Amino acid sequence: MVVVRGAGAGRRNWVRFVPAFWFGSYGKKSLRNSHPNVRAELRPSLARRLNARLNAFRASGRRPKFFDELLIGVLGEEVPHLFSKVDIMDETYAELPRPEFYKVDTVHDSIFTFPQYLEGLLERWHSFYLKGEQTVGGGKNIMRLDFDGRKVVLTIPNSELRKEIAHNLGLLLGKDNFLQNFPGQSEREIAIPLENRRGPVVFWKQPLAEIAKTLANHVIPKGRYIMEKPLNIPLINGRTWEIRHLVHCDRLYRPVITAKYGKIGGDAYFGNMDLGGRPVLAEKPVHDVLQNSQKEREFLVRSEGIALAGAKLLNAHLLSSLTSYINARMTGITPDNFFARRLAVDITGHLGRNGKLFPAVIEIQYPIGFKSYVPELEEVDKQALARVQAMDKALEKQDLPLIQQMLNG
Ligand SMILES: Nc1ncnc2c1ncn2[C@@H]1O[C@H](COP(=O)(O)OP(=O)(O)OP(=O)(O)O)[C@@H](O)[C@H]1O
Ligand SMILES: [Mg+2]
């Protein structure tokens, strides 16, 4: 397949896709009878790059099982800002019950600069999660910051990120913006005190504003982040928890919950399996917290409704971003095929001031790798795993012609 610059002068945005990546009209036409030879609007430079991606993808011999994997694999790598965690969060989370968050870019300022956000949120919230771009990776790009009035503590579960941060702090040694810091309570923590005082004598001071500035400009890796207020999760034996809902969408975008299981975290801060968490039946953590079968049922039903709503919002985001980026009528592959085949929605319980437990979304996991649920379901719910696999098969079968059309064209 090649994309060629289309019809003449004054129409520089028009390109023609031939033969498999061409465009037809929107709407729910069948694959076979849609009209092949229609031009599409697309920035020529982007069209070129997308084609290069598509060709590289073909040459790689990779054959995805689901059509959305192919879209994400080709388009997603070319326009990664559409599918990063930060974007998925930004686009879908506003309408879901979630903690307050700010989207920040350490390089390009928004309303405030990154140091201002760091300082402001430490002052106001005392704690927040700083979540990076990656969508998959189980705690690889996340840290928590806590401020108790005397020190800022960074808790960094991933050892590589921790090394990078410690290294950056080390590089400041002997420089003006040097931050005095110490190991925290555990090896995952770095503590940065505001001052060193013995009795009335203050040996040195590093005000919060200065700490924030140095962290932002010299220590925290550059990139786009979400700064998120911690939920008030009632702990189970000192451990956090959440319920992972696996959602599949069928051809009519209808989301269904095919499986779910509980995750009991390795500690109070992080619920990831890779960080010492373990899988349990979905009902278990809610039962441990609520001890009231009526309330437990209500919570579980509401959580499922929220997971389904999350899937719908994600699909709306995929549809609008893919169609506006391709910005074209793809013959044979109509935009109604742009939806997530499988995703996961992690939901925990937030204890409100009224003492009531509300379901709240921790994250929407998309794309989702099979490693993020198969071992867990094998352990806690084999029947659900069989359901998931049957659904996968049906969707694979449905997507095969679409994938062939795009890859063999
Ligand atoms: N706002 C929050 N309040 C309380 N706990 C949170 C919050 N955000 C994250 N956590 C905890 O941190 C863990 C990891 O966060 P999250 O799932 O967002 O990132 P991640 O798992 O590292 O990302 P990914 O799975 O995409 O690699 C969660 O499982 C949860 O236990
Ligand atoms: Mg996670």
TrEMBL record:
**What domain of life is recorded for the organism?**
Archaea
Name the record gives this protein = Uncharacterized protein
Q: What is the lineage of its organism?
A: Archaea, Candidatus Iainarchaeota, Candidatus Iainarchaeia, Candidatus Iainarchaeales, Candidatus Iainarchaeaceae
